[in-house]
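Box 4.2: Ligand-aware structure prediction
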Amino acid sequence: LTLENSIRKALQLNEFVVYYQPQIDIMTGDIIGTEALVRWNHPTLGLIPPAKFIPIAEETGIIVPLGEWVLKTACLQNQVWREKGLAPMSVSVNLSSRQFSKHDLVETIEEILRETRMDPQYLELEITESMTMNVDVAIEVLGKLKELGIHLCIDDFGTGYSNLYYLKLFSIDRLKIDRSFVRDIMTDSNDADIVATIIAMAYKLGIDAIAEGVETKDQLDFLRSQNCHEVQGFYYHQPLPAEQLEQLLMKSA
Ligand code: G
Ligand code: G
Ligand code: MN
Ligand code: NA
């Protein structure tokens, strides 16, 4: 069996699971949202991280049905938590460039929203800068997604071929400062300056900024001092299975 076929089969056998990494309001410490991150719960190999199968899934195009499954699962879960009376929380789902360039993307997402009864204002799609290379198509597709009421976030911000003008053109709601900048903010003054500048720029444009990969209190304090309002990282929580996140939310409710 090729890896490609194994992934296809695993999708049929329901072997994928979605983990949720909390996103934190830096001032209150509250969980304000989560990022949905897929894992493969392999019957003999155990939990396989996405780095081991996402690249192949991207290459072969299986990322399209897999990505749709993740989106549907995350929306269903969000709705279940709302029905259980938990405070409304956003969920961010990574969109692959393969999904982005499918002509029926908007219809597919619309259908998933309808089927799961997900409130679109709590759904965020994470796109990367490289996906927006074809500007005219990106404007059209992102515009339609915004019309559905969905929020948009640029993932790994600062690492792609970004044209800052896109930020205005695409009506982006949030940008996620790439982990590679956050990692060295305490030791590399260039990285500290870059992070501070991204936060200030986002603020001026009326876009939210979230820092990812926050692992230490020093990093958190620096981000707070620069008026970054939202963080995600191991300092607070690893990506968690749904049940574990639910327990956490129940405790803090
Ligand atoms: O979850 P982390 O544990 O290891 O994820 C590694 C990489 O896999 C990240 O770049 C993340 O964006 C990507 N990834 C995780 N889940 C998904 C998914 O559902 N769809 C896509 N396209 N990428 C994902
Ligand atoms: O941006 P992407 O979608 O690539 O981001 C999600 C990835 O980041 C996942 O692999 C997740 O496990 C990882 N991640 C989340 N928080 C941290 C952190 O604090 N440190 C490191 N090293 N990785 C993190
Ligand atoms: Mn992401
Ligand atoms: Na990222």
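In the box above, the bound molecule is sodium ion. The beta strands are 16-25, 31-42, 46-48, 90-94, 123-128, 151-157, 174-177, 208-212, 230-232, 240-241.
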